[in-house]
Amino acid sequence: MQKKKRNLIILILGLLSALGPFSIDLYLPGFPEIARDLNSTTGRVALSLSSYFVGVSLGQMIYGPLLDRFGRRTPLLVGLFIYLFASVYIVYVTSVDSLILARFIQALGGCAGMVAARALVRDLFPVSETAKIFSLLMLVIAVSPIIAPTLGGFATAQWGWHSIFIILAVLVTLNILLVYFWLPLGAPPDTTMSLKPKSIITKFWNVFKTPQFYTYTLTGSFAASGLYAYIAGSPHVFMELYGVSEKQYGWIFGIIAMGLVTASQVNTYMLKKYTSQQIVKVTLLCQVVAGALLFLGTIFHLIEMYSMIVLVFLFLSTQGFAFPNTSALSLAPFEKSAGTASALMGALQLGIGAIITALVSTLSNETPLPMTGIMFFCASVSVMILYWGNRKMKTLEQVSIS
């Protein structure tokens, strides 16, 4: 594959993958204004974030089989048009309940890009390169937390929160054009695949029961849920508890996201010397340490705004290593069913993320404890799953050898 064409494909896949994070991060600075405009609270508005995660989780379970059965392009374009419709509809909502529902529909469409991008990485690049490709995608994805909150804060301050969803409508239109004109088709349709519920469930189960899949998917899902806990809790913590403005919050969010960008690119160099398994193990231990410091610091009132920023920066930097490596390890055993495996991986990640964001919103009080406590919990669970899964795989290897 020519380098120029390869880079263009990675850019398009990155933009498709970034649609989800951008849809989340862009409207975070607008939470207080949305709450005022819709006569609600920021905690209630945060439930639109949970509904987005639920929609992405369920939608991926739908798109996975469709992408395998009909090929990558048609289901992808249908999903992107659903996202476009929902983005325009949100501009006209008049209640927080309508916002929550519309965000759910928006997620059902937007998640097609996430599933298709991961499946196309498996289609278009050799297995030996997938972790590096995911790291490059992470660079594009990680730009969204830097640009989105800053842009969202500026747009909200200048034109109101409705402008955020006009920006998203323009972004998805760009994605549609890039997919239609320049993205390769990927794996051909599997016309033998049945779309009957029993057959689909069986295929999902066959993917899930693969030890390497469930170990690294669940490990990565709980590690990522620490990020989602921060996303759900940070508007309340920084704008309401620490009293920063919408624009200042955007800058804080962007600075913290720089850790993700840097780590994801360091990961490409680390892969030259170390395996993905080795990197994941060290990364998650570091995440647990940062999470413990956040949690204990909050309990004993040792953390103020600047120390909070530093510790969250360290905590989230680990995602730049965890995401590409757990994703590559999860999808490595699959070739023909990459779409289904990608969908199940994403559904589990966002499903757990939806529960975590709802929990942060429900437990919200006048302290950062709900956010920091749940971040520490997620990091701890991810490490426990990793060590349990590795022991399980070693046991199975020993049994097969004997």
TrEMBL record:
Record's keyword annotation contains Transcription: no
Membrane protein topology class: Multi-pass membrane protein
The keyword Cell membrane is annotated on this UniProt entry: yes
Main localisation: membrane
InterPro entries: Efflux_drug-R_Bcr/CmlA, MFS, MFS_dom, MFS_trans_sf, Tet-R_TetA/multi-R_MdtG-like
Transmembrane segments: 47-64, 76-94, 100-121, 133-155, 161-183, 213-231, 251-270, 282-303, 309-331, 343-363, 369-388
Coiled-coil region(s): none
A Pfam family of this chain: MFS_1
GO CC terms in record: plasma membrane
Annotated protein name in UniProt: Bcr/CflA family multidrug efflux MFS transporter
Species this protein is from: Gelidibacter gilvus
Organism taxonomic ancestry: Bacteria, Pseudomonadati, Bacteroidota, Flavobacteriia, Flavobacteriales
